[in-house]
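User: Watch each token:
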Amino acid sequence: MSIFEEKVEEKKVADDQQVDEPTNEEENQENQEGFSEMIDEHFVDTDKIKEGDVVEGKVIAVNNSYIFVSLGGKHEAFADVEDYMSKSGNLKVKVGDTLRGFVVKKTDTEIVISHSLNRKYVDKSFLQNAYNNQIPVKAKVISTIKGGLSVEMLGTRAFCPFAQADIKFIADPSSMIGKYYDFLITEISSNMKNIIVSRKALLQEEQNKLKKETLSKLEVGDVVDGKVSRIADFGAFIDLGGIDGLLHVSQISWVKVDSPRDALNIGDDVKVKIIGLSGEKISLSMKELQENPLEKALEELEVGDIVDCRILRNESFGSFCHLKPGVEGLIPISEMMHTGRLGNPSELFSVGDLVEAKIIRVMKNERKISLSVKALKPDPWEHIEDHLQENDEVEGVIDGITNFGIFVKLTEGLVGLVPKSKLFRSKTKFNDEDMNKPIKVKISQIDKEKKRISLELAGEEQQKKSQRGFELPSDQERRPRNDWRKFANTKQEVPEDNPFSDL
């Protein structure tokens, strides 16, 4: 007795043991008519089914070894559970699903279907039929040879080019040796000596089907499980089941991640949230599933708190600093020094510097935190009269050279300007080589309200002598030019013996 006959017999015994509820004659007749209509509707003439045909049926039962499929009416078939297992060892179908397969064996008592042709049921005479009908054939990888893999299918050797062995590049083809895979025959000679097969075509078909199914289930806001399939500089690609989504580096964590490779490895199982979905483009986020540390920081930090922070990056308008993991604050350039000339924050801070600062603003709606360094230092302008007075001659250091004058640092936090007009009168020039050099100046004006100090060079006559090489031409030096103009504008007789008389 075949396996199929055994299962049919078991089903009959089970049906005999059931006790039907008594029904009246009318109900029995209606049930009988309905049953007959159902049989007619789903009836399939199994006499016309032959080996190699593609059939579909509903799964009616599953045990540890077999899947039982109804082909219509009273006719059933079965398939090995192993044929419909996924790579992870899970059964792809369940009771009620529609199963598709190839008829690999048909007798008067049983019909066997399979996901692909294999030696368990057929011989190599089926290879031509498999090629004609594009039926997958299960084969074992025997070895790697020049340009591809040598595989054995139904007792016959075939060749699979490396480019057709998988959808993705195979770094180590030898890892496939000894394993069984389904292949499609793409070329076959009449004597079956030369057979070329492809696994890539089957994988693409399966992937496209899985991709379509996965996409139909996904929506923005869904939290899904995935596996890291690839890593690039800008992010990681996550396999969601036949289709990849992009996890941008900025969406990995609230804490700044310089490179995705610092946080993820290929093969890692991750839980992600779908934040964007456009066609087959899927944007993912991990940090959306984490608590935002900035939200907590905005509640905990208060104006007036003094904190230690580390400089992360310098911009022209200020320096961003690290307060807590995932929390940044900004020190505006205007909050770095009480006075003085600061062209760029990098002149004062370097990336990585640890700085003490005071929180001066917490903007919850804008989700921003502003800090000040100068707020922790005394303002030198508050008691400037104790240190500097107008007409004082003091020594400072050249702090900047511009086209409108030079800045001179007098004390910490106090910088004055020698205007260009004062420099012109002193006939003194300065260049980049003079930066940070000491210089003696006279305080001509102090504007405490506007926090400005006007300066001029001290001891101008001495400055002239010491800077003689930088003086402008004197009036005496300009006279020859004036005399030449006077001469040119007057008509004078030229001696005949003058060599330039002909000019």
Notes: The chain has five domains: 3-114, 126-205, 221-289, 294-376, 384-470. The helical segments are 3-17, 25-42, 126-133, 200-217, 293-300, 420-426, 460-466, 475-488.
